[in-house]
Specification:
By secondary structure, this protein is α/β, with parallel strands linked by helices. It contains 6 helices and 11 strands. It folds into 2 domains: 4-140 and 205-243, Vaccinia Virus protein VP39 (Rossmann fold, 3-Layer(aba) Sandwich); 149-202, N-terminal domain of TfIIb (Single Sheet). Helices cover 26% and strands 30% of the residues. The chain has a 7-stranded mixed β-sheet.
Amino acid sequence: MNYDPLAELYDLQYRSYRDDLPFYTRLAGDYGGPVFELGAGTARVAAALARAGHEVVALEPSLQMIARGKERLAAAGLTNVSYHQGDMRSVRLGQLFPLIIAPFNTLMHAYTLSDQDATLQTVRAHLEAGGCFALDLYTPNFGQLEVLRLEPEWAHVGGEDGDLFLLQTHDPDAQLLTSHYFWDTVGVDSLLRRRRSTLTQRYFHRFELERALLQNGFTQIQVYGDFSRGRFHTRAPNLVVIAS
């Protein structure tokens, strides 16, 4: 999937999202750096880790995401993040890390079983003995499907007089959720312009994720339902995992 067309919208949608930052910052404090981040996007998490004094190696396939991430880091005066453009299924950096993270649904972009195994083998190839791998995914509790809806939390994205609409479709057999975004903005000429973007994610259930981790050599798997390490249950907002 080409993520370049999503870069601007993604950056605006989640620029202020903070829920996961204390969790990953605390892990970096516990395990030390450098931290290897898969799916670093526009450096939202990497910047928080860098502010806390950690070196971050940020892997991201999209050049547009990387460009926006570098702008964010430069604006904050952060120089301890290095970006690498590449595929999390196949990249090999020749370096080991005490902490590897895949935040904010990164593993949901591994669409097939072979993609998932290849990604987890990338983690194994870069993880120090005794090191930690942490990730989070959303639990598959969907909003209203097949209906065009306005999301209040993204009201800021459209700007003044603009809106962001969302329509989601679900393929339960393939465990795929596809989000269709319709981004309406009003220019200085008072004309309404619409941009469209599509994002497909392959969601996980708890035990299939644990099984995938076990089969790829991970042990001591801890599963939580939120970033405060609360108990996981099917209505929990997140599937948060720490493994070694």
